[in-house]
Design a protein that fits this description.
By secondary structure, the chain is of the alpha+beta class. Helix content is 33%, strand content 20%. It contains 10 helices and 13 strands. The termini are far apart. It binds 2,5-anhydro-1,6-di-O-phosphono-D-mannitol (AHM) and magnesium ion. Magnesium ion (MG) binds next to strand 3.
Length: 352
């Protein structure tokens, strides 16, 4: 019989391998897991919120009518603001650095998160997700700073996501493999269901938004034809696109494949892509790499980008390493004009 291992137990056991570890970091991950359970509960009843919330006398504050992404944002903040473990936070839903209220102690880590990714899918009962990552604070002083947050992805100490799908799963890495846990609703625990996830060598899917193909660069077009088996000798892959990156990535992580949201031509809507480097890109890139895959912005490793602003965008190609390297190859060959445009943005200096 397989051992039953809760996420708490798994995190504690991992921590034991590091003598001297204080457990602070483990507890912080556990706080995120608890926030995920609350968000999962609300996400599951999203279709009922208007009906129940409007009539419930128990809830005069109107909290239930709150938009789910705002609710998720607040839950993650409230779970972490008073623990003494976190020095600052940043959220995709907030413009600026989120400071720890003065009445609480601060700690050695900063937390970055996208509280509800793919939120356009909530109203139509399609999977959404939460993405998070953790950097170690390195500046002096008690408060976390923008510099603590805007570190390169390769310096992350942990990252993960929660997918609110047909079941709720939390997948995380601390740099020692990628592990997945499924929420048992009956007991309210995340149970280890996918230990040591490795992206399969043979890919099955490619995932991208074909609706914006008219804005694509030539390199992205060539890549897509390659993945479709039209150009070159690669067997044709199936196309799947949900529009929630967590869900699209999760499927491709378990089944093999590539997800891309490229930068577009200069005069089109998204020359630098859509995905946010700090809340989405770095975390996913760390997980992809830990699972034996790779994530690139089309030029190089996303984990090597030196961030210059909180809401920085990044083009993204991630999944099986050989496919992502193929994307880099096509972009180098066909998209030099776009590369110059994007490089100017990518290499901007951080201004405080
Ligand atoms: P969001 O953070 O506003 O939800 O946007 C990010 C999402 C990703 O999850 C998804 O991959 C992408 O937007 C879909 O965008 P599009 O509808 O342009 O394909
Ligand atoms: Mg998002």
């Amino acid at each position: 019989m397989e051992k039953l291992i809760t996420i708490e137990r798994h995190m504690q056991d991992t921590q034991k391998q590091f003598p001297g570890a204080t457990g602070t970091f483990t507890k912080m991950l556990q706080d995120v897991a608890l926030a995920a359970k609350i968000i999962s509960r609300e996400t599951n009843r999203a279709g009922l919120t208007n009906i129940l919330g409007a009539t419930s006398s128990e809830n005069p504050s109107g909290e239930r009518q709150q938009k789910l992404d705002m609710f998720a944002d607040e839950i993650i903040f409230r779970m972490n603001d008073h623990t003494g473990r976190v020095a600052a936070m940043v959220s995709e839903e907030q413009d600026d650095l989120i400071e720890i209220p003065v009445e609480f102690d601060t700690g050695n880590y900063v937390l970055l998160y996208d509280p509800l990714d793919g939120s356009s899918n909530i109203d139509v009962n399609v999977s959404v997700g939460t993405i998070f990552s953790i950097h170690r604070k390195f500046t002096k002083g008690e408060k976390g700073t923008i510099e603590d947050v805007l570190q390169e992805g390769k310096r992350l100490v942990a990252a993960g996501y929660v997918i609110y799908g047909s079941s709720t799963m939390m997948v995380y890495t601390t740099g020692y493999g990628v592990h997945g846990f499924t929420l048992d609703l009956g007991v309210g625990e995340f149970i280890l269901s996918h230990p040591d996830i490795r992206i399969p060598e043979t890919p099955i899917y490619y995932s991208t938004n074909h609706g914006i193909e008219k804005d694509w660069t030539e390199g992205v077009r060539k890549l897509t034809h390659y993945l479709q088996g039209i150009d070159g000798d690669h067997p044709a892959l199936n196309q799947r696109y949900i529009g929630s990156m967590v869900a699209d990535f999760h499927r491709n992580l378990l089944k093999g494949g590539i997800f891309y949201y490229p930068g577009t031509l200069e005069n089109r809507k998204k020359p630098y892509g859509k995905i946010r480097l700090m809340y989405e890109g770095q975390a996913m890139a760390f997980i992809a790499e830990q699972a034996g895959g790779y994530a690139s912005d089309g030029i190089g490793n996303i984990l090597n980008i030196r961030p210059h602003t909180l809401h920085q965008r990044t083009p993204i190609f991630m999944g099986n390493r050989d496919l992502v390297e193929k994307a880099e190859h096509f972009i180098k060959e066909y998209d030099q004009e776009w590369v110059a445009l994007y490089n100017e943005y990518r290499n901007r200096e951080l201004v405080i």
